[in-house]
Design goal:
By secondary structure, the chain is mainly α. The chain folds into 3 domains: 124 residues, Rossmann fold (3-Layer(aba) Sandwich), CATH 3.40.50.620; 118 residues, Serine Threonine Protein Phosphatase 5, Tetratricopeptide repeat; 176 residues, DNA Cyclobutane Dipyrimidine Photolyase, subunit A, domain 3 (Orthogonal Bundle). Helices cover 45% and strands 6% of the residues. It has 20 helices and 5 strands. It has a 5-stranded parallel beta sheet, sandwiched between helices. Helix 13 packs across helix 14. The longest helix is centred in the middle third of the chain and has 23 residues. It is globular and about 80 Å long.
Length: 484
């Protein structure tokens, strides 16, 4: 490679410097580096939701600071990557470009087009896997087909896993200037990623520290505290027993291999037992499986994975019911707490996600795609593979899906996984003074107890918008046509 020429380093969903193959290989050339990020909203790619845009702003700010400490600038550009990348490479006189592979069909199409243009100009294109433990095409059944069920997929994936050494963040990066003839750069604020009128992100700022350092801090906290009770405690909404790493993974601020190595080390040293460690590794496995599904099923967010579900005719969407669900005003406290946690923090506890999704699909008979879109807009960790695969799992239309007759009872689920109502009291403060016996079914509380707690059902807190047993019967009847 001619090191007299600069190299281009294109950041995408890999906003970190450690264990980052694209960064590592670009640095190893010894050539000056032009590092850039493109906010691409014109290549047919799915636009980011509001919470993801907030996260991206702060993640880019951290990445720019981390690069600056090593002597390298991060240039931010807005526009169509298919036009901008070749223009940037030509303007800076780069002889090669480095990027991390993506797995959605539209993203792949963009990368193929750019790669073809650059190769025609004699530019060396270097792509690498910095997002997954294994590439989607590396794990197939004995007949050479993609897996459709998680358990055998994950068994095969674990058998095929190879431990690789971690790539340290470079201490110093040579930088190349941004020439005048290159496409115009944007200030980060010019991307308008942050909410302004109104600024609804106060809860996000309170909960999260976007960026690579924040991801590493979160991993350390998880290993030291929550992981020790992970297998038993992960489903309890009133405990902090989950990793909270998903937004960091979503934006590539930490690699799944870094998490994998850290857990393997903790298990080998006896710091955590294999039961808890393996349970969490299986969650990484579900993320891997989701990308496996997305790679082979590009329309995972819009089309039923199980095409038999195409026969199902969704009723006309009840606008009032949808709004009540989105605002956390369904009258079912565990559902409402989850939806309000989502709105306030850009996150929802994983068990509650399943309960809230089941309620929308089965109780309200609203198409799973409507819920997927809402989560895409409001989750900081809105992942193109995980989000779609998980919604389809709940609906029963996905791979390895819950059967159509599995309908979460929001009362029982609340009583089981928020037994004293701590989660509900935090996010549905109207009910904070209600006795734990009735916290998940306030409409059954005695009138004098409601008065003492300052609750007027239908006024300070809604009555259930649907009755559980009737809604369950309706869903069972509607979905029964798909059994067999």
């Amino acid at each position: 490679m001619n090191i007299s020429k600069p190299v281009a380093l294109w950041f995408r969903e890999d906003l970190r410097l450690s264990d980052q193959p694209a960064v590592h290989t670009a640095a190893e050339t010894g050539a000056p580096i032009v590092a850039f990020y493109i906010l691409d909203e014109r290549s047919g790619l799915r636009a980011l939701g509001g919470a993801s845009r907030w996260w991206l702003h702060h993640s880019l700010a951290v990445l720019a600071r981390d690069l600056a400490k090593r002597g390298c600038d991060l240039h931010v550009v807005r526009g169509d990557a298919c036009e901008l990348v070749p223009a940037i490479v030509e303007a800076v006189g780069a002889g090669s470009i480095f990027w991390t592979r993506r797995y959605g069909a539209q993203e792949i199409a963009v990368d193929i087009q750019i790669k073809s243009q650059l190769k025609d100009r004699g530019i060396q294109v270097n792509s690498s896997n910095g997002q997954l433990l294994l590439e989607p095409w590396q794990i197939k059944t004995k007949t050479g087909d993609p897996y459709r069920v998680f358990t055998p997929y994950w068994r095969a994936a674990r058998e095929g896993m190879q431990t690789t050494p971690s790539l340290a963040a470079p201490r110093k990066l040579n930088t190349a200037p941004w020439p005048r003839k290159a496409p115009p750069r944007a200030r980060l604020d010019d991307l308008e990623l942050l909410p302004t009128m109104p600024d609804w992100a106060a809860g996000l700022r309170k909960k999260w520290i976007p960026g690579e350092a924040g991801a590493q801090k979160r991993l350390t906290q998880f290993l030291d505290d929550a992981l020790k009770d992970y297998a038993a405690g992960r489903d309890f909404a009133d405990r902090q027993a989950t990793s909270l790493l998903s937004p960091h993974l979503r934006f590539g601020e930490i690699s799944p291999r870094q998490i994998w190595r850290a857990l393997q080390h903790a298990m080998a040293s006896g710091a955590i037992d294999t039961r808890n460690g393996d349970k969490f590794l299986a969650e990484l496995g579900w993320r891997e499986f989701s990308y496996h599904l997305l790679f082979y099923n590009p329309d995972l967010a819009t089309q039923n994975f199980n095409r038999r579900f195409d026969e199902f005719s969704w009723p006309r969407e009840n606008v009032k019911h949808l709004a009540a669900w989105q605002r956390g005003l369904t009258g079912y406290p565990i559902v409402d707490a989850g939806m309000r946690e989502l709105w306030q923090t850009g996150y929802m506890h994983n068990r509650v996600r399943m309960i809230a999704a089941s309620f929308l699909i089965k109780h309200l008979m609203i198409d799973w795609r409507t819920g997927e879109k809402w989560f895409w807009d409001t989750l900081c960790d809105a992942d193109p593979a995980n989000n779609a695969a998980s919604w389809q799992w709940v609906a029963g239309s996905g791979a390895d899906a819950a059967p159509y007759f599995r309908i979460f009872n929001p009362i029982i689920q609340g009583e089981k996984f928020d037994p004293v109502g701590g989660y509900v009291r935090k996010y549905v403060p109207e009910l904070k003074d209600l006795d734990s016996k009735f916290i998940h079914k306030p409409w059954m509380a005695p009138p004098d107890m409601l008065r003492t707690a300052g609750i007027a059902l239908g006024k300070t807190y809604p009555l259930p918008i649907v009755e559980h047993s009737a809604a369950r019967a309706r869903a069972l009847a509607a979905f029964a046509m798909l059994k067999g």
